[in-house]
Every structure is written in C-alpha cells, then in structure tokens.
From TrEMBL:
Cellular component, GO annotation: membrane
Name assigned to this protein: Protein DETOXIFICATION
Keywords: Membrane, Transmembrane, Transmembrane helix
Family indicated by similarity: Belongs to the multi antimicrobial extrusion (MATE) (TC 2.A.66.1) family.
GO MF term set: antiporter activity; xenobiotic transmembrane transporter activity
Membrane-spanning parts: 54-74, 80-107, 128-152, 158-182, 194-213, 219-245
Region (Disordered): 1-36
C-alpha cells in the first residue's frame, strides 16, 4: 500500500479569505463591546430612576418600623394599638391616596414627553385639590376610630389607645397628599436627587428624635408620634421649596386657575387608579 503523502505545511489562506475572516472577527468583537456598553448605559439610566424610588419607599416604610420598634418599649397595649391603626387604617388611606397620585405620574409623563411643560404644574395643582378633598372625606374614620373598634368588638384597653394614635395619624395622612404628588411630579422630570436626599434626611431625623423621645426624655407615645409627624413633613416642605424657588423653572410657573378645570375627569382617573391599587 502506498503511504499517503501529507504536506509538511498547510496551504496558506488566500489574502481575500484572510481579510474576510479578520473583518468578521472584528465585527463580532465590536458587537460584543457595543452590547456591553449599552447594557451598562441602560442599567445606569434604570437605577437613576429606580434608585430614588427605592430610597423613598424604604424611608416611608422605615418610619413605620422605627415607630413600632420604639412604641414596643412603651408597652404591649400601645404596641398592639399602633399595629392595628398602622396596618388597617393607615394602609387603607395611604393606599387610596397613593393610587390616586399614580394617575398624576401618567399625566406628567405624557405632558413632559410632548414638551407641554406648563401642564405639569397644572396637573400637580389639580391633584392637590382632588387628593386633599379625598383626605378630608376620610377624616371621620380617624376621628371615630374608638367607636368603630367598639362596634367591631375590639378589646377596650386597645381601642382607647388606638383612638389616640388615630388622631396623631391625621397630620401624617394629610402629608401624603403633597408627598406622593410631588414625588410623581419630580420623577417625571428626572429630578430624583432631591427626593433621595430628603428621604434619607427624614429617616435619620425620625430615628434620632424617636430615640430621644423614648430613651432620654421618656415622652412615651406622644414623643414617638410627634417625631413621626415631623419626619413625614420634612420631605414635603423640602420639595415645595425646591419647586417654588426655581427647581422646576420649565414646569412650575405659579398657581393657576386652570387647575380647577376638568376636575370631574381628573377625579375619575384618580379614583380608578386608587381603587385598582387598593384591590391589588
């Protein structure tokens, strides 16, 4: 049998094939680098929007946890009453107001994308009117918490303290009218830094004041709830100052009577959003 002849060197690729292979490899590497850069850029943009929202939600629920932790040092009855009011009463009212404020997010996003910047301020004022009216409508639930709990057969020791806590919660509930709407308004313009700073500020202040009120000055329930009220209103005043004094020159041009127009349609949209969130 004849031995097969194997050449010592493989034949060289033609120059045209070499050019095609090198260009194909370069294109693949460029595509991979381009994809990686796009992923990093999209991730950065995502966290620029989601990060402040996460901090705000963390701060909002963190205030409740801090209050509950310090009230637990006061007594079991106070802790049970606070848990009852914050879990049932406050969650319901906050859910309604947050859901109604989410309609503002849709309207502001559409107007900002369409470059109708002046409409954002009008939508914001219109939401204040609608949400404040709904908050006032929910006030009887807070004012008559004790009789309501008696009707539901709650323990007498708990409903007496729960009625007091519900009264303390009225300013906290009213702050949500401005807090949620201002957040939606600012996030639509990607002005997220101010929201993040104020969220960390009110969280730290509430932690400090609650510790001082319970551990140092022994103010009891009034000290913790007073600290909570101060903490929730700090972001509201901070965001209002930011908006009113030049933070949003394109979208805030002052108060306008146009905010009172089309209140019926805006109320329907807000109410449907609120009901949807409560059901979820």
């Amino acid at each position: 049998m004849e031995k097969s002849k194997v050449p010592l060197l493989e034949p060289a690729w033609p120059p045209a094939d070499i050019d095609r292979r090198s260009s194909a490899g370069g294109d693949e590497s460029e595509k991979e680098e381009g994809l990686g850069q796009r992923l990093v850029e999209e991730n950065r943009k995502l966290w620029a929007v989601a990060g402040p929202s996460i901090c705000t939600r963390f701060s909002t629920f963190g205030l409740t946890i801090i209050s509950q932790a310090f009230i637990g040092h006061i007594g079991p009855t106070e802790l049970a009453a606070y848990a009852l009011v914050s879990t049932v009463l406050m969650r319901f009212s906050i859910g309604v107001l947050m859901g109604m404020a989410s309609a503002l997010e849709t309207l502001c996003g559409q107007s900002y994308g369409a470059k109708q910047y002046h409409m954002l301020g009008i939508y914001l004022q219109r939401s204040w009117i609608i949400l404040f009216a709904c908050a006032v409508a929910m006030l009887p639930i807070y004012l008559f918490t004790s009789p309501l709990l008696v009707f539901l057969g709650q323990d007498p020791a708990i409903f007496a303290v729960a009625g007091t806590i519900a009264l303390w919660y009225i300013p906290i509930m009213l702050s949500s009218v401005w807090s949620y709407t201002l957040q939606m308004y600012l996030q639509a313009q990607s002005k997220n830094a101010i929201i993040t700073y104020l969220a960390f500020l009110n969280f730290g202040i509430h932690l400090l004041l609650s510790w001082l009120a319970t551990a140092r000055f022994h103010l009891g329930l009034a000290g913790v709830m007073g600290s909570n009220i101060i903490a929730v209103w700090i972001p509201v005043f901070g965001q209002l100052v930011f908006v009113f004094f030049g933070g949003c020159p394109q979208t805030w041009t002052g108060f306008s009577s146009a905010a009172f127009a089309d209140l019926g349609a805006a109320f329907k949209l807000s109410m449907s959003s609120g009901v949807m969130l409560c059901i979820e």
